[in-house]
Description:
The chain has 274 residues and is of the alpha/beta class. The chain has 11 helices and 10 strands. It folds into 2 domains: 10-205, 2-enoyl-CoA Hydratase, Chain A, domain 1 (Alpha-Beta Complex); 210-267, Lyase 2-enoyl-coa Hydratase, Chain  A, domain 2 (Orthogonal Bundle). Strand 1 (10-14) and strand 2 (19-24) form a beta hairpin. Helix 1 packs parallel to helix 3 (83-101) and helix 4 (118-124) packs across helix 5 (152-159). The two termini are 26 Å apart.
Amino acid sequence: MPEPGTYTTIEAHVDDRGVATLTLARPEVQNAMNGQMYDEAREALRLFAADPAVRVLVLSNVGKTFCAGGDFKYQQSQADKPRGERIREAQKLALWLRELDTFPKLLIGRINGAAYAGGIGLISTCDIAFGLSDASFAITEARIGMIPGMISPYVVKRIGEANARRLFLNARPFKGDEAVGYGLLTQAFAPDELDAAVEREVDLALRCAPAAVTEIKRLIHYVDRHGFDDNFIYTVDRVADMWGWDEAAEGMQSFFEKRLPYWDWRAAKEHKKP
């Protein structure tokens, strides 16, 4: 994993508990996204996904704004390029969003500030998203003659069609508490409460079996997108496979022995994996 400072638009780090952070780090432009950020963030995400030591990823920001969306100078630079090049460049955000959405470990959004346009798309890929009660949010594309293209599958899925119609079509601004009502944020907090709330979720995640978390994320994605007949086959197959997992054996054995399983961070110093 690259050390902090290797990247120029993001920061990436893994602590000794296996908690990774991917931090948007262009505060001078409110963390607006450009092609370099897409490339760097996707590289960091690939490394986090492949690293067995990483158990949780926290997505956050430097500065007072989580993400202002796409960098206008970057977007203006695309106008005169051949359409094929514009498509390849637009795919970078589409791919990053998909990779965040399907990231095989728990993804927690520490949304420490306002979010607009594409920033709303990033929030919508998080498994859990905590933000600030008084932060401002808006899906602003209509106001500036654009469309919320690549973010739309994730935002509409997150907040529902009715809320998407209300917020997409007139760029209506809203605060963090209202974002909870829409389902965009999981919870909203005062600034001095945000880090403790994120840490509580991290603590819970580090008590869970890593392979099980990965399989459960796949399970959620599958069953949400399929009907009863497909889900009947898929879920029965997964449980039949699960009964043969080492993690399942350890989880049940630790229950009977009244001890913590080896993956629980609280037991890490006393109990190592067999």
